[in-house]
Amino acid sequence: MIFSVIYKKRSQKQVLFLKKALRYYSDSLLIFVLAVNINTPQ
Questions:
Q1: Would you give the DSSP letter of residue 14?
Q2: Gap between the Cα atoms of 36 and 42, Å rounded
Q3: Of 29, 6, 2, whose CA–CA distance to 14 is shortest?
Q4: How far is 15 from 3, CA to CA, in rounded Å?
Q5: Membrane-spanning regions, if any (predicted)?
Q6: For the chain, which has fewer Cβ within 10 Å, the N-terminal or C-terminal residue?
Q7: Residue pLDDT, tens place only, 1-42
């Protein structure tokens, strides 16, 4: 019983971390794409 609660909390923390990592990754990817678009002559 307690184990499942601990596991649930841990998985919630992991999901939160994954969301944060995904947001950071998408932001950096967006910045990278913008930088490439700016650097390449039209």
A1: H
A2: 11
A3: 6
A4: 18
A5: 21-38
A6: C
A7: 677 887 788 888 888 999 999 999 999 999 999 988 887 776
pLDDT of res. 26: 92
- pLDDT at residue 12 in the model: 87
Tokens found for residue 23: 């947001």
Q: What percent of the residues of the chain are helix, what percent strand, and what percent coil, each to the nearest 5?
A: 90, 0, 10
CA-to-CA dists, residue 41 to 6, 33, 34, 35, 37, angstroms: 54, 14, 13, 12, 8
What is the rounded distance in angstroms from the CA atom of residue 24 to the CA atom of residue 31?
A: 11
CA–CA distance, 19 with 27 (Å, rounded to integer): 12
